[in-house]
């Protein structure tokens, strides 16, 4: 062998080995190898990588799952469980508060809709409530609720999932999430969910306040024909600006207040409800004017192109109070809505943690039984 001979290191993929399913490297040993014919030695590092295997033999039996039904929840993917909880809670909350939402929309847009007719530009809560009942009957209070329910299912799922994902991204090197990190995670989650579901929100508004439409499909086809695809995103800018601080403040205050409470109170349902109520109140007071701007920019024939046009325009026509038109029904709708959604999400997370703990206890119990059985069999020989 010549003195210029060199060793070649070859990397080869190990079929079926998942790097995300491997245990930590515990050993890296150096060995001395003899080179044939020369007796020389060279350093060679040998690294062993052990793949973790699912201990399926310790999985709970059907009888054990029936005896411990909570453990079944741990078998459902965590994201799927949170998705279902957020969707159901959001749909139920929206349906319960739909009449208040309809009243709020009429109060927010009444001045723009009748402005050219010289009619009364402001409309009160009682007046809007009476007007809907007189003109449309009981079902009028739930007009436009179906597209809202359809929208809230992906909206809740995307928002809650995105919030958990962004919290992981914004954690510091020490693993802790700062106040700024929580605010950023909430803002990004709010904007992500809003962008995905915004066209459905526009359809709901048109169906709720513009006469002559009976179905969401009819509204969508008319918008495409007369205004083009871009009309589905009219007012997206102020929507993103409005939802980012709202969700940021809402989620951040909820997390921080709960974290500051004694541990014995943190896991109570009434604590989650009260905390969500406080966080939603603070967020609503801060961000409501941007919601009014967004709604008026979504209207067909709206004279406002930007937020900077809309804010002074609304203030000039209706006064500063015009920016808070519909605040009362919105607060009555938003506060319980937010409380139900955040409380349900918090409760499901606790249930999932309890289910995982119970499942692990069953697995540990099965493992001990297997080890005991093996020990007993070995002692016989």
TrEMBL record:
Q: Report the locations given in the UniProt record.
A: Membrane
Q: Which UniProt keywords apply?
A: Coiled coil, Membrane, Repeat, Transmembrane, Transmembrane helix, Transport
Please verify whether the record's keywords include Metal-binding.
no
> Where's it mainly located?
membrane
Q: Where are this protein's Solcar repeats?
A: 77-169, 177-260, 267-351
Provide the topology term for how it sits in the membrane.
Multi-pass membrane protein
- List where the protein spans the membrane: 232-251, 271-290
Any coiled-coil regions, as ranges: 345-372
Record has Repeat as a keyword: yes
Similarity comment text for this entry: Belongs to the mitochondrial carrier (TC 2.A.29) family.
Its name, as the record gives it, is Envelope ADP,ATP carrier protein
The organism that produces this protein has a lineage beginning with:
Eukaryota, Viridiplantae, Streptophyta, Embryophyta, Tracheophyta
């Amino acid at each position: 062998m010549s003195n210029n001979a060199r060793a070649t290191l070859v990397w080869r993929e190990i079929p079926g080995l998942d790097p995300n399913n491997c245990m930590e490297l515990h050993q890296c040993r150096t060995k001395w190898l003899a080179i044939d014919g020369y007796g020389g030695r060279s350093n060679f590092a040998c690294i062993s990588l052990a793949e973790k295997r699912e201990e399926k033999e310790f999985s709970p039996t059907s009888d054990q799952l029936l005896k411990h039904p909570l453990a079944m929840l741990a078998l459902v993917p965590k994201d799927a469980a949170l998705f279902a909880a957020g969707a159901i809670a959001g749909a139920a909350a929206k349906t319960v508060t739909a009449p208040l939402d309809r009243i709020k929309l009429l109060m927010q847009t009444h001045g723009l809709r009748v402005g050219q007719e010289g009619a009364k530009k402001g409309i009160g809560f009682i007046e809007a409530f009476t007007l809907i009942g007189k003109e449309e009957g009981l079902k009028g209070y739930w007009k436009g609720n179906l597209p809202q329910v359809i929208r809230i299912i992906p909206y809740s799922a995307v928002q809650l999932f995105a919030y958990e994902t962004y919290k992981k991204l914004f954690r510091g090197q020490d693993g802790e999430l700062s106040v700024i990190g929580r605010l950023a995670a909430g803002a990004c989650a709010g904007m992500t969910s809003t962008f995905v579901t915004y066209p459905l929100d526009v359809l709901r508004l048109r169906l709720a306040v513009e006469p002559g439409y009976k179905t969401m499909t009819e509204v969508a086809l008319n918008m495409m024909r007369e205004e083009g695809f871009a009309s589905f995103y009219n007012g997206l800018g102020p929507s993103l600006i409005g939802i980012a601080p709202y969700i940021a403040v809402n989620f951040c205050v909820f997390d921080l207040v709960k974290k500051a409470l004694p541990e014995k109170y943190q896991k109570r349902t009434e604590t989650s409800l009260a905390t969500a109520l406080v966080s939603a109140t603070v967020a609503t007071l801060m961000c409501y004017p941007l919601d009014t701007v967004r709604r008026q920019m979504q209207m067909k024939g709206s004279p406002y192109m930007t937020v900077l046009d809309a804010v002074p325009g609304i203030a000039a026509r209706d006064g500063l109070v015009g920016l808070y038109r519909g605040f009362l029904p919105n607060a009555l709708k938003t506060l319980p809505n937010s409380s139900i959604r955040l409380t349900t999400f918090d409760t499901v997370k606790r249930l999932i943690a309890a289910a995982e703990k119970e499942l692990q206890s069953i697995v540990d119990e099965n493992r001990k039984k297997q080890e005991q059985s093996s020990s007993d069999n070995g002692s016989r020989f």
